[in-house]
């Protein structure tokens, strides 16, 4: 059934394999427990003792919940948002009930009232889902913003008009090459103007890189030399769209165009265990302060990586030996075949 | 027949301009007598090319088109410059301010023809004012060529009677710019130490106190990197110089 509300950003269930989500849940539940104890305890000293007791009861249950959610996340992520939420809340309550049963059997101490705990677990689960949803919503304007920036800043007028000019120069001499160049330009623009998608396959982003590189090569000729190291690039890895292309564009704009000599650019993408590493290097031209705008593209990408991978992705830049490097590290998420 | 010189860092862009010049040849007959791939080449080759019109790209590595125009404006006669640019807001503003002619890339044949037909030489002053940004080079007009002195190699600039002496580690040149204009243009990198002298801030090694014997009043001197000569700091400039240098 098609959704009635055509929101471009549907609510997403949290990914319980994500470290950021796990950390947030752990912290939130423990803070709640501490607050609850602080309210109930007669004296501050008693509060600590109470908290330790409560933690001894709570932590194993909490970890159990998280392990269960992580294990079931593949199944849960297939559900629609509200059914997913219902399943998560039910799971939290059911696990609490089971845990209660277990504690009652092995422990001599009187356990807290089961019904109260089960309801509390359900409420906390629902509360956390609400919190995570708000969090995602808070980021979502950033996605819109990032998309707008991608549209405006990425299509550097300088690049567009110079590319069109280069194609015009080709039309009489080499019509076939001119055709290919226009097709590349069309593909590039299609991607830049496309609706924001969830993820793209690395293979698609690499194809985009190559189309872009072809156009720049046309314009700059021998001044641009790109070395591709893509042999161990996992083509099925998922990543946010337009993460690598702006970096290559920056490399050309800041590192190659301002120089008269041949500019060597390196593009290396590889998989290392469950991480995907991408590195783009270009000659570092210190005197080119006039070319601003590098920061903005980097901030834009950093923000989108955070949106898609939370704390699990990193972007670093460094300059040494007259080379400027940007490195991205993100989790390897293969696309479903 | 108009002799034309083309300066653009992108080969396809130069080719395109040549194609267009061919297309409008019946209307405006031209010959391309020279080409350059960057600003330095343009300054080096243009003076001997025998061209009257320079089609000049703005965004080029090394020396940009606006600065190239400033240097070439000291030639006799100065070139007729038609700027060519892909969209660049600042460049366009600069032209409109100085009423210089420019073409937007991709260039249309009829626009190019029109620009060449009315290619009246813009005044030297207009070319010289094409850009207010500090130059990367100072130019010294010699008979049929223009010698460039990189600004970052200059140790000091000193006004003599009619000219300004430009001192680098290895050589001395004379330029026609006024010291006061140079001071304004390079305010970020040079400091005035005397009525007639500007020194490069980056080259200042330290100061020496001297004199005091006889009638000579004691005064401060600047020690510059790699230069034997000491330059006197006037009493009036000393507090300013001291302040600026201690900020470093």
Of all chain pairs, the largest interface belongs to:
A-B, 21 and 21 residues
Radius of gyration of chain A: 26 Å
Run of helices and strands of chain B:
EHEHEHEHEHHEEEEEHEEEEEH
Which class best fits the helix and strand makeup of chain B? alpha/beta
Widest beta sheet: strand line-up of chain B: 2-1-3-4-5
Q: Please tally the helical runs of chain A, counting DSSP H or I stretches of 4 or more residues.
A: 9
Number of DSSP strand runs of chain A: 7
Oligomerization category of the chains in this entry: heterodimer
* Class of secondary structure makeup of chain A: alpha+beta
Low-confidence stretches of chain A: 1-8
Helix percent of chain B reads: 25-40%
Reading the helices and strands of chain A in chain order gives HHHHHHEHEEHEEHEE
What composes the largest sheet of chain B? 5 strands, parallel
Please tell me about this protein's structure.
The complex is a heterodimer of chains A (337) and B (248). With 337 residues, chain A is α+β, with helices and mostly antiparallel strands. Chain A has nine helices and seven strands; from the N terminus they run ααααααβαββαββαββ. Helices cover 61% and strands 13% of the residues of chain A. Chain A starts with 18 loop residues before the first helix and ends in a 6-residue tail after the last strand. Chain B contains eight helices and 15 strands. A five-stranded parallel sheet of chain B has the order 2-1-3-4-5, with helices on both faces. A five-stranded antiparallel sheet of chain B has the order 10-9-8-12-11. In chain B, strands 13-14-15 form a three-stranded antiparallel sheet, with no helix packed on it. The radius of gyration of chain B is 22 Å and the shape is elongated. At the A-B interface, helix 5 and helix 7 of A face helix 1 of B.
Give a quick rundown of the structure:
Chain A is an alpha+beta fold and 337 residues long. Chain A has nine helices and seven strands, in the order ααααααβαββαββαββ. Chain A has helices at residues 19-40, 44-77, 81-106, 114-154, 157-173, 175-193, 202-220, 245-256, 294-309; strands spanning 200-201, 224-229, 238-239, 263-272, 275-283, 314-320, 323-331.
């Amino acid at each position: 059934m098609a959704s009635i509300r055509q929101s471009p950003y549907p609510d997403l269930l949290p990914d319980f394999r994500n470290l950021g989500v796990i950390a947030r849940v752990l912290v939130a539940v423990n803070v709640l427990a501490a607050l609850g104890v602080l309210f109930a305890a007669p004296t501050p000293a008693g509060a600590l003792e109470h908290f330790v007791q409560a933690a001894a009861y709570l932590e194993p249950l909490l970890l159990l919940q998280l392990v269960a959610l992580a294990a079931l996340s593949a199944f849960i992520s297939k559900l629609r948002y509200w059914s997913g939420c219902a399943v998560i809340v039910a799971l939290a309550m059911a696990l609490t009930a089971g845990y209660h049963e277990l504690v009652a059997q092995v422990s001599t101490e009187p356990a807290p009232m089961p019904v109260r705990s089960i309801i509390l677990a359900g409420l906390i689960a629902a509360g956390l889902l609400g919190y995570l949803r708000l969090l995602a919503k808070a980021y979502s304007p950033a996605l819109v913003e990032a998309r707008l920036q991608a549209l405006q800043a990425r299509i550097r007028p300088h690049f567009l008009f110079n590319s069109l000019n280069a194609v015009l120069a080709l039309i009489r001499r080499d019509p076939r090459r001119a055709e290919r160049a226009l097709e590349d330009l069309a593909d590039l623009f299609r991607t830049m103007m496309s609706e924001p998608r969830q993820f793209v396959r690395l293979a698609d982003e690499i194809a985009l890189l190559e189309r872009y590189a072809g156009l720049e090569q046309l314009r700059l000729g021998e001044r641009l030399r790109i070395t591709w190291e893509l042999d161990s690039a996992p083509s099925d890895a998922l990543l946010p769209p337009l993460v690598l292309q702006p970096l290559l564009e920056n490399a050309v704009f800041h590192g190659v165009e301002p120089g008269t000599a041949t500019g060597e650019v390196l593009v290396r993408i590889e998989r290392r265990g469950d991480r995907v590493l991408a590195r783009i290097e270009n000659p570092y031209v210190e005197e080119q302060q006039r070319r601003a705008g590098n920061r903005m593209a980097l901030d834009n990408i950093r923000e989108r990586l955070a949106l898609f991978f939370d704390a699990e992705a990193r972007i670093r830049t460094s300059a040494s030996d007259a080379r400027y490097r940007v490195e991205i590290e993100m989790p390897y998420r293969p696309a479903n075949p | 027949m108009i002799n034309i010189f083309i300066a653009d860092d992108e080969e396809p862009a130069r080719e395109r301009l040549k194609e267009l010049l061919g297309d409008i040849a019946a209307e405006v007959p031209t010959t391309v007598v020279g080409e350059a791939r960057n600003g330095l080449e343009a300054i080096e080759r243009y003076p001997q090319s025998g061209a009257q019109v320079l089609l000049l790209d703005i965004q080029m590595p090394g020396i940009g088109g606006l600065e190239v125009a400033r240097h070439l404006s000291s030639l006799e006669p100065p070139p007729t410059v038609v700027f060519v640019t892909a969209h660049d807001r600042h460049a366009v503003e600069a032209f409109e301010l100085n009423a210089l002619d420019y073409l937007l890339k991709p260039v249309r044949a009829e626009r190019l023809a029109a620009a060449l037909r009315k290619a009246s030489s813009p005044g030297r002053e207009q070319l010289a004012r094409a850009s207010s940004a500090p130059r990367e080079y100072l130019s010294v007009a010699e008979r049929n060529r223009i010698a460039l002195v990189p600004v970052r190699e200059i140790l000091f600039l000193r006004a003599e009677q009619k000219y300004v002496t430009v001192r680098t580690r290895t050589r001395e040149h004379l330029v026609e710019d006024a010291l006061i204009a140079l001071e304004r243009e390079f305010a970020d990198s040079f400091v005035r130490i005397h009525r007639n002298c500007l020194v490069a801030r980056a080259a200042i090694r330290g100061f020496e106190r001297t004199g005091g014997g006889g009638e000579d009043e004691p005064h401060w001197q600047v020690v510059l990197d790699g230069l034997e000569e000491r330059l006197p700091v006037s009493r009036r400039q000393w507090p300013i110089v001291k302040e600026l240098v201690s900020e470093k």
